[in-house]
Write a structure and sequence with these properties.
- The protein has 247 residues and is α/β, with parallel strands linked by helices.
- It has helices spanning 18-26, 52-66, 78-89, 109-125, 128-138, 145-156, 160-171, 177-180, 200-209, 225-228, 230-245; strands spanning 4-7, 31-32, 71-76, 94-100, 187-192, 215-218.
- The protein has a single domain (4-245), classed as 3-Layer(aba) Sandwich (Rossmann fold), CATH 3.40.50.1820.
- It is globular and about 55 Å long.
- Bound molecules: D-malate.
- D-malate binds next to loops.
C-alpha cells in the first residue's frame, strides 16, 4: 500500500485531517499530514517565494524523503491547488489523486482583488476579521458548534505572515484546467453539497475534464466537508482506495 499524504487548506493546518488520518491509519495506511510553510507553526517562506509551486516542492521533498518516492495524495481547497502544481511538476510521484472541495481555475479579477484587500486588512488589523468572514462562508447552514469552534481555533492559531503570503500566492496561481485532461491515474473528486466557496458546479467542471474520476457529493456539508461530515468523507475515500487498489 502506498502512503497517503493529505494537504490542508487555508488558513488551516494538519489538524483539519484528524478524523481522516485516524480512520485511514486504522485501515493500515501510513498517513502523512504535513503543515505547509507558514501554517501549523512552521516558518513561512518569504512572500516573494511563496507559491503553489513552492508548496508543491515541499510536498515533493516529503514524498521522496518519507514515502519512498510515490504516494496517494489528497488536497483540500488550497491543498488541491498545491496537488495540481505537484501533478504538473512531478506527476510520477502521485499514484492516485484526491481533490476535495477545490477547483482548477485561477482567481477571477474580483476574487484576486478581494484577496489583495484582505491582505491590506490583515496587515493593518490582524487576521481576526478574515477568519470570522471565512467561518461565515465555509460551513453549511446551522453548523455544529464543535466543528465551528475547532475550525476557529485552527484558523486563529496561524501566523498572520503565513496567511498573508498564502493569500497572495493563491491570488497569483495559474489556471490548471489543461492539466486535468492529462490525468490517467485514479482520481477522486469530493464536493460539499452546500459548499459556497468551491460549489458543486466547480467540482462538476473539474470532472468534465477527468471523466474517469468519480465525483462524490457530501450531503449536509459546506466547504469544510472533511471536518463537517467526516464519516461520509472517510467512506468516500475508503471506497475510492479500494477501487484504486484493484485497478
Ligand atoms: C481554502 O479552503 O483553502 C480556501 O478557501 C482556498 C481559497 O481561498 O481559494
Amino acid at each position: 500500500m502506498f502512503p497517503i499524504i493529505l494537504i490542508h487548506g487555508f488558513p488551516l493546518d494538519a489538524r483539519m485531517w484528524t478524523s481522516q488520518a485516524e480512520f485511514l491509519r486504522g485501515r493500515g495506511y501510513a498517513v502523512l499530514t504535513p503543515n505547509l510553510p507558514g501554517f501549523g507553526g512552521t516558518p513561512p517562506l518569504p512572500r516573494d517565494q511563496t507559491s503553489m509551486e513552492a508548496f508543491a516542492h515541499e510536498i515533493h521533498q516529503l514524498i521522496i524523503r518519507e514515502a519512498g518516492g510515490r504516494a496517494i495524495v489528497g488536497g483540500f481547497s488550497m491543498g488541491g491547488y498545491v496537488l495540481q502544481a505537484l501533478l504538473r511538476s512531478h506527476p510520477e510521484t502521485v499514484v492516485a489523486a484526491m481533490f476535495l472541495n477545490t477547483r482548477a481555475e485561477a482567481d477571477s479579477p474580483t476574487a484576486r482583488e478581494g484577496r489583495l484587500k484582505s491582505i491590506e486588512a490583515i496587515t493593518q488589523n490582524g487576521p481576526a476579521s478574515l477568519i470570522e468572514t471565512m467561518l461565515g462562508k465555509v460551513l453549511a447552514p446551522h453548523p455544529s458548534p464543535t466543528v465551528q469552534s475547532q475550525a476557529r481555533a485552527i484558523m486563529a492559531s496561524q501566523s498572520p505572515q503565513g496567511i498573508i503570503n498564502a493569500q497572495f500566492a493563491m491570488s497569483q496561481r495559474r489556471d490548471q484546467t489543461d492539466l486535468l485532461a492529462t490525468l490517467t491515474i485514479p482520481t477522486l473528486i469530493i464536493s460539499g453539497a452546500q459548499d459556497a466557496t468551491s460549489p458543486p458546479s466547480v467540482a462538476l467542471a473539474m470532472q468534465s475534464h477527468i471523466p474517469h474520476a468519480p465525483l462524490i457529493q457530501i450531503a449536509s456539508a459546506g466547504h469544510l466537508a472533511p471536518m463537517e461530515q467526516p464519516i461520509a468523507v472517510n467512506t468516500a475515500i475508503a471506497e475510492f482506495l479500494r477501487l484504486a487498489a484493484s485497478r
